[in-house]
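Annex B. Sample input.
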Amino acid sequence: MPVIDQSKLEPRTGSIYPEPYASEMAGRSSLRLGDAGGLTQFGANLVILEPGAKSSLRHWHQNQDEFVMVTEGVCTLIDDAGETRMYPGDCAAFPAGDPNGHQLVNQTDTSARFLVIGTRSDEEVGTYSDIDLMVRIKDGHASFTLKDGSPFKAPETGESK
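Annex B, continued. Sample output.
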């Protein structure tokens, strides 16, 4: 069984989100563990959240299951039920098609980490619970629209994304 040397993986930063939302992901990085191990059927990432950082915009997936487990520090799960503190070993699952928008936030003064495992599918639709935004992913390409399907226009430039 090949062991993945995490110290040799380059942390990924940034976001696929258009602005002004991409800037909200400051302090978030991830190690693509599944990619490093050659996995193709599901993704496995170790997400690192610095103090004040969040994992994503609050969202839910139409076609992909998602599972998280806190491995270090304390994360706050924010979903439709409110806020729940999660400690090392705590897990949460988000089945495909369940419109319970969720995100993890580090509300502490030390870094936190969690493992996220999710389905990989050729096509996906993600809905962002707190804003008028959706993402459609097809063949690795993300396109953002408003929830009614009309084009998303970046506020500062008016350009479609």
